[in-house]
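Next comes this protein:
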Amino acid sequence: MLAAKLPCKETIKVLEEPIPVPKKGEVLVKMKASALCRSDLHRYHGVAIFDEDDEAANITPGHEPCGIVETLGEGVTRVKKGDRVAVYLGLGCGICPDCLRGDIMLCPEFGCIGFAVNGAHADYMTIPEENCLLLPEGMDYITGALATDVGGTLYTACKRVELNGTKTVVIIGCGPMGSGGILMAKGFGAAVIAVDTDDERLKMAAELGADHVINPIKDNTDQIVKKITGGVGADAAIVTAGGSVPLNSALNVIRTKGQVALIAESNEAVIDPSNQFVRTLAELKGCWYFNRGDWEEIANFIVDKKIDLNKISSHTYPISEAATAFPLFDSGKTQKVVFVWE
C-alpha cells in the first residue's frame, strides 16, 4: 500500500508499505477520504504538539479519515466487515473519568491517531474497534471525514455557547474550521457574522450562509457588530484564529453575559480580565474536539439539516500526490484539502 511520511522538516515522501494486520480488538479500514488538518502542518514544519517521540518520522499522519471496514481483528464484535466508518482520533486509557464519559481527548494518557500511531494518509489503517464511528445513510465519505474534526468540534462549540434561532454569533477566522462553524451555526438557526482579513475567505463565508461579513483591516469590527445587534453586542463568538487579536476581538464584540468558544490553538494571549470578564460576566469556553458519545447526534444533525460540508473541501488528491497537497494546504489559499480513493 501507499503511505505518506514526514521524514524531515517540510518534506513529504509517499512510500510502499505492507498492509497492516489488525491486532486483537482492532479493525483494518480501507481509506475512502482523509482530510489534511492544520495539526498535520505542525508536523510538516517540525513542530511537536503532542509530545511526539523520536520515531515520529515513521508515523503516517492523518486524523480526519473515513473508509470501509475491511478486516476484523480477534475479539471484534460490534463492528462488521463492510461497515462505513469515520474515525475518532483519540486514544485513551479507557478507565479514567474522562475516558468513561467519552471525553477521550482529556485523558491524561491521550494519544492522537496520526501522531502517536499510524494515521490515515495511507491506503489502509488499523484502529481500535471503539474508534469506529458508523456513518448514517446519506453521508458520503468526504462529509464523513470532515464531520469529525471540523463538524464535531464546531457542533460542540455551537452547543456550548447555546446557539439557536434567537442568537447572533460572531465567527472569527474563516479558514476551514471557521467555515465549518458558519455551516453548523446556520444549522442551529443562528444569525452569523463572519470576520476575516482575507476577502476571498469572506466571499466564501457569504456563500456558506453568513449574514454579515467584516474585514477588520478595512472596518471597525466592534462598531459594526454593535450596529448589527442594536448596540447590545453578539450573544456569542467562536474563535478559530490563534493569538491575542482574534481572542480580544471576540471578547469585545459579545454582549454582557456573552459566551466565547475558543477553538484556535495558541501558546499565549493577552487579555483585559477586568473589563472583558469581571465587569461583563462573560464566559470563555475551551472547545477541543467532541465527546465520542455525541457522534450519532452530530452525524444525524449534519444529515437532517442538510449541512453540505463538501463545500469546504476545495481540493482533492490521490495519496500518491501528497507532496503536492501538503504545501498547497500550507499556503493558506485553500479550504480543506482531502485525499480521496476511488
Notes: The chain has ten helices and 17 strands.
